[in-house]
TrEMBL record:
SUPFAM superfamilies: Zn-dependent exopeptidases. Residues 1-14 have a biased composition (Low complexity). This is N-acetylmuramoyl-L-alanine amidase. It comes from Paenibacillus durus (Paenibacillus azotofixans). Gene3D superfamilies: Zn-dependent exopeptidases. GO terms for molecular function: N-acetylmuramoyl-L-alanine amidase activity. Keywords: Hydrolase. The lineage of its organism: Bacteria, Bacillati, Bacillota, Bacilli, Bacillales. It holds the Pfam family Amidase_3. Residues 97-216 form the MurNAc-LAA domain. Residues 1-52 are annotated as: Disordered. GO terms for biological process: peptidoglycan catabolic process. GO terms for cellular component: outer membrane-bounded periplasmic space. It comes from the Bacteria.
């Protein structure tokens, strides 16, 4: 059974289970996997992600840096399940979702950074599974509710520009998920200023603090 985040767990019921998925990995895997259970649409198992235009840092390194800080920050109040703690892994997006399903996560946090051909674009986006997709409609409402609370808390902490809450029906990691999921695009690594900022420990700490504050509000409202 999957705990409902809309009905927050009492302390007796144990700590909420958070599955942290640091996006991408050291080596992308361009073999294909179905985008959803039973779907004929195929996508690469793990794309290689974007890269910092100023720092040269690949997205997979940045996402792991933040994920490891987040793991520490959540350790006392949550049961944390890490999809990866190293860059030398080969775990497809479908497998990541299934691991979080099997962990009966109350929420999956997928940590990513963005890229664009337009170097002036910056800001954070909060992606959640679409209510219109038959694969994700059962988790859409709770995912959106979590995304809203998280986005407000993170934006308050970081003062980042917001690109808003964005429903998606084309992400393998969402379509295979049976538990609420939110994907945080922390900023644009193709924007020189934001790329540098994303790699500073101070800014990473703000992101982590914002995520923790959002989770605390979501799982213990009031
Ligand atoms: Zn990414």
């Amino acid at each position: 059974m999957i705990a409902s985040a809309g009905n927050p767990a009492s302390p007796a019921a144990g700590k909420p289970i958070i599955c942290i998925d640091a996006g991408h990995q050291g080596k992308g895997n361009n073999d294909k996997e179905p985008i959803a259970p039973g779907s004929k649409t195929m996508k690469p198992k793990v794309s290689s992600g974007t890269r910092g235009i100023a720092t040269g840092k690949p997205e997979y390194k940045l996402t792991l840096e933040v994920a490891l800080k987040l793991e520490k920050a959540l350790a006392d109040d949550y049961k944390v399940v890490m999809i990866r703690r190293s860059n030398e892994v080969n775990i497809t997006n479908r497998e990541r979702a299934i691991r979080c399903n099997n962990a009966e996560a109350d929420l999956v946090l997928r940590i990513h950074a963005d890229g664009s051909d337009n170097k002036s674009v910056q800001g954070m986006s909060f992606l959640y599974p679409s209510a219109k997709s038959r694969y994700t409609r059962d988790i859409a409402q709770e995912s959106l509710a979590a995304a809203k609370v998280l986005s407000e808390a993170i934006l308050r902490e970081t003062a980042a520009k917001s690109k808003g809450l964005i429903p998606r029906d084309d992400l393998t990691g969402f379509n295979w998920s049976k538990v609420p999921s939110v994907l945080i695009e922390m900023g644009f690594m193709t924007n020189r200023k934001e790329d540098r900022l994303l790699s500073t420990p101070e800014y990473q700490d703000k992101i982590v603090k914002g995520i923790k504050a959002g989770l605390d509000l979501y799982f213990n409202p009031g």
